[in-house]
Amino acid sequence: MQMGTVCVGTHRDETRQRVKFTDDRVCKSHLLDCCPHDILAGTRMDLGECTKIHDLALRADYEIASKERDLFFELDAMDHLESFIAECDRRTELAKKRLAETQEEISAEVSAKAEKVHELNEEIGKLLAKAEQLGAEGNVDESQKILMEVEKVRAKKKEAEEEYRNSMPASSFQQQKLRVCEVCSAYLGLHDNDRRLADHFGGKLHLGFIQIREKLDQLRKTVAEKQEKRNQDRLRRREEREREERLSRRSGSRTRDRRRSRSRDRRRRRSRSTSRERRKSSRSRSRDRHRRHRSRSRSHSRGHRRASRDRSSKYKFSRERTSREESWERGRSERGATDWRLESANGKAASRRSEEKEAGEI
């Protein structure tokens, strides 16, 4: 099995086991039923097989999954169709340029009249194609109404062709004037009959390009709406995230405030506890100092009293001694001369005895 083909039979089962519809190898335009390779198959602009996998089973899987979630495959399909249509428009411009080079120049007035004929031809072709389609579907009444409109447009076309013929020489009028279809890049003749116009505008090629262009317009609109929705969702999520961050900051601030308050309370409790301990310790030290001071005071008082007693006894003894001395002095003064005379006599007697003793010895 080659890539780009529609898988059938056992090969399809094997492919489904190997590849999911989300795989990059799967054609997203095929999943959305707008791949130009499928639409233009069998026309003169058949593009051949797509380079990516086409599988109707994968399309069914995608349709089921897309109901549950947005896969946004429209963007890939839009890029694919834009690239294809851009190439088609480029070919159209090249075809117009070649026609301008090969066909003889005509005035702007004649060119406008020729363009009017081409427009009426296009309208006739579209009406005929639509009438044939309605007839094939069995809607005969609507088909007959459209054919009546075709007759009116044919009358307008005849008048436009007459004006165009009268505006230029007969030799030039007989020359086939071509026009490039703006939809499918095919060449249209100014003098094409109704059958040729109906075949072109009702043909698979032209209708296929119409389908591709309409699908591209639809994809652009869908992608724009989804992108706008995504932008709004992204903006809403960002606002919610910012609101959550603000709430988180506020909550964090309150938490920090509570934490700080608890910390301050703990510090205050510790401070009060430390103060109490200090006061207790201070009181204890004060009591100890007071006890030591009292002990020293008592010791000092005892020593002082002892010293006082000693001083009192010394003073008493000194007073007594002084009193005795004074008494003795008074007694001595009272004994006075008597004692002195006695002592003088005794002294003289002793002196005579001493002298007598010395003389005797001699």
Give a verbal description of the structure.
With 362 residues, the chain is mainly alpha-helical. Among the domains are: 19-101; 105-202. It is 79% helix and 2% strand. The chain is built from ten helices and two strands; from the N terminus they run H-H-H-H-H-H-H-H-E-E-H-H. Strands 1-2 form a two-stranded antiparallel ribbon. A hairpin with a 6-residue loop joins strand 1 and strand 2. Helix 5 (74-102) crosses helix 10 (204-361) and helix 6 (108-136) packs antiparallel against helix 7 (140-166). It is rod-shaped, with a radius of gyration of 69 Å. The model is unreliable at 1-12 (pLDDT under 50). InterPro entries: Luc7-rel. It comes from Muntiacus reevesi. Residues 85-163 form a coiled coil. This is RNA-binding protein Luc7-like 1. Residues 249-308 have a biased composition (Basic residues).
Along the chain, the helix and strand elements come as HHHHHHHHEEHH
Which percent band covers the strand fraction? Answer: under 5%
Rounded to the nearest angstrom, the radius of gyration is 69 Å
Pick out the low-confidence regions: 1-12
Q: What characteristic shape results from the CA principal axes?
A: rod-shaped
Please report the total strand number as a whole number: 2
- Average pLDDT works out at 76
End-to-end gap:
189 Å
How much helix, percentage-wise, in residues? Answer: over 70%
Pfam families: LUC7 (PF03194)
Biased composition (Basic residues): 249-308
GO molecular function: mRNA binding
Region (Disordered): 223-362
